[in-house]
Amino acid sequence: MIKGVPQPAFYIFKCQQSAPPGMPKPSCVSQNNPESAELFQHLAQSLMMKGIIGTVSPIQTGCLNRCQQGPVMLVEPGHTMYVGLTKEKIDRIIDEHIIGGNVVKEYVIADEMWGEPVSPSEMAR
Ligand code: FES
After folding, report:
1. Which of 56, 72, 59, 61 is nearest to 10 (CA)?
2. Integer Rg of the chain from CA
3. Helices in the chain by DSSP H: which ranges?
4. Cβ(63) – ligand 1 distance below 6 Å
5. 27 CA to centre of ligand 1 in angstroms
6. Probe ligand 1: pick from 13, 30, 65, max atoms within 8 Å of CB?
């Protein structure tokens, strides 16, 4: 077997979208929630401190279309969408899901907001 550079075990896509001040639409990084601006840094630092940054890639991303539930992040593989994040919640997700292998169900988006995906082959014209 060829041994190459290993793939990451997980990608964690953290929504970093911020709405301009005065904009009524909620966003994952918001002036109304000062902690929200620190969550990505916290995620990356925690992964580093636990020594797993080499196999878990934190990615800053734009809007994931679940703004009402922000701050949100998506864990792949698994399509797990975590909502209403705080630093404490991120730490628990790293310990229990990323290291421990058990999804933290209390922090996962409600089923009615995260239905089964529609196959592109059904949608394509
Ligand atoms: S702003 Fe984060 S999901 Fe839309």
Report:
1. 56
2. 16
3. 39-49, 87-93, 120-123
4. yes
5. 5
6. 65
Is the distance from the beta carbon of residue 27 to the nearest atom of ligand 1 less than 6 Å? yes
Question: CA 51, CA 23: separation in Å to the nearest integer?
Answer: 39
109 pocket-lining for ligand 1 (C-beta < 6 Å): no
pLDDT in tens, the chain (125 residues): 678 999 999 999 999 999 877 777 899 999 889 999 999 999 999 999 999 999 999 999 999 999 999 999 999 999 999 999 999 999 999 999 999 999 999 999 999 999 999 999 999 99
Helices (H), 37-100: 39-49, 87-93
CA atoms within 13 A on the CB side of 56: 22
Q: Which one-letter DSSP state was computed for residue 6? A: P
User: Is the beta carbon of 28 within 6 A of some atom in ligand 1?
Assistant: yes
- As a dihedral over the C-alpha atoms of residue 97, residue 103, residue 105, residue 108, rounded to 10 degrees, the angle is 80
The CA 119 to ligand 1 mean position distance, Å, reads: 23
